[in-house]
Amino acid sequence: MSVSKRQIRILEILSNQDSFMTVNELADEIKVSVRTVYYDLDQIQLMMPDQFELIRRPGLGVRGQWKKTMTEKLTTQEFDDEYVYMQIFKQLVIDSKTITILNLSSEYYVSTTSIVEHLSQIESKVSSSSQLQLISDHLGTRVQGSEYQRQQLMIDFNNHILEQLGPNTTLDHFAEMLKRFYDTDIVEAASNFQEDIKELNLRIVAPYYQFNIFSVLIVMMQRIRNNYHIESIEHNSSGKNIYALNHYVIAQTLFEKMKSTVIFEETESDIYTLAVYLQGYRLEFETIQHEFVHSYQDIARDLIKKMSLAINEDLTQDDLLLNNLSVHLYHMDYRMKHNIIIRNPLLSEIIKDFRLMYDLVWLMMDTENEINMLTVTEDEVGFLLLHFQTALDRRQSSRMIYVVSQNSYVSQDFILSRIRTVVSSLDVIKIVDPEAILNVDTNQIDLIISTIPLETMATPYALVSPLITSNDLLIIAQKYQNMLTTTTFKENNTFNHYTNPKFIYFMKDASSKEEILNEMLSDLIEFDYIDERYAISVWTREKEGGTFVGNATAVPHGSIKYVKETIIPIWINKTPVKWGDNKVQIVFLYAISNDDLKNSKTIIKSILNFLKDNKNLPKEVQSMDFNTFKHLVYGG
């Protein structure tokens, strides 16, 4: 059923009116009977409930307004693909409607081929669950199966919208977008949950969880209102599910608060399902004790001990890290076992800025997965990394910087503010006169900045003008950077101590990622560098998250538990091969043994430094022979 030209004319008239029109006035305007106008108004209300709001008032007449900016789309009879896809998803999944291809084609003014393509996209998402299916028969097309899985699909749909909005979006902006697909009063009721949790003495542990809780509340209320409920759940009264039962009270209370503005009737299974989500998303009564968290302290201690060894920083005495990590591991394990997925909105930035730490955390968690059966995703690794990075930031020692300056017309505040722009805010800066510097033990100073010439000294030294010009700042920044990287040269090619020319696969003709990894792993097994289980752990790692590091390069790895002797094989392919969503030509497979755990940071850092220093390697290698490349790796 499609909108007729006469009905389009009615829509145009009503949308341009600021006040009510009587049906008689409308009939006169378009030269039809009053009865026909009533019929057309009923049809518009029936066919376009999501696009056009028709307001009827006895004694006043009728007026209308677009719910979205649809005028141009309707009059030109064009809808963009994303809009059509989302509306079909809404009808099939959110509203549980049975649709037909012809009706959708007519409704959105697109070809039946386009509708079929959109249905194919939805079917691929539906089929990812073993308990949902897209059914097509003489009645039309519909989604059938588990209500719980349907709601999971709706939550994923909301996550897609959230990702499109970007990491800086607000809850209010997210809410406005969701009003296009869910009932407005439900979205508004869910929007008030932040006030509700304050009133109920609840707390959200981290800001990003609020979007997850908000999304779940909307999905569940929408489905419950339409009389769709989660299937009966067999409650497990042992283990961690007891903790979920604590959240049953929170879930029940939240539903009651929502029912003050929205009418719906939840079941026991609905309440319990919300409790499981709230537990996973860490919404808690302030008085709830983490009685199960203590069992994760041993895992956290072991993880901290391994990371301390790997990065050569003793974090074992950091009680705050131990506590935060224990709580996070408990909730992470709970989420994984209940299939509650949290997206890390900053994952790409985390990997880019902290690639070394990210890979190290992956290595350590691979071991914990083997020992304690802890499952982890790349999103969760990103969250775990931040705990360690924060601990490192707390440990960062202040550097001592002395500024030698004679009394002059330039104030000390001016000098300090200028220098602060190019050094760490944690550094200590002292301004002294030329005589005072002679009585200071310069071995305790990291950098000297002077406005007058000084005698030659071992401490890094920058000569600048009293005004600290832009050029002076460049000099200071260079000296400061040199001070920070004095050990970089020593570490630059550390990985080459663990390579073997026998395992440098130069200018190979592999056609796939599988071919590359299988040959490398088979050789390492044959020469007794690794256990066969290491190969399995490499493939598991590849499935859990990408190992592409940019510039046509990948750095795959597996569990250190199955490495007998550290080895870093290198593969150079003649042409790039598909590696997940990317193309890869260079592969460094780092197999680090437990005995070399203390060197893992240096090894991985040296690989990343080598790739950074040879950023044109994918092109340059085409003109190299094996000996030239070997010289590049080993030097000398």
Structure description:
This protein has 6 domains: about 5-70, Winged helix-like DNA-binding domain superfamily/Winged helix DNA-binding domain (Arc Repressor Mutant, subunit A), CATH 1.10.10; about 80-145, Arc Repressor Mutant, subunit A (Orthogonal Bundle), CATH 1.10.10.10; about 150-285, no CATH class; about 295-390, PRD domain (PTS-regulatory domain, PRD, Orthogonal Bundle); about 400-485, Rossmann fold (3-Layer(aba) Sandwich), CATH 3.40.50; about 490-635, Mannitol-specific EII, Chain A (3-Layer(aba) Sandwich), CATH 3.40.930. It is built from 28 helices and 15 strands. The strands form 5 sheets. Strands 11-14-15-13-12 form a 5-stranded mixed beta sheet, sandwiched between helices. It has a 4-stranded parallel beta sheet with strand order 8-7-9-10. The relative contact order is 0.05.
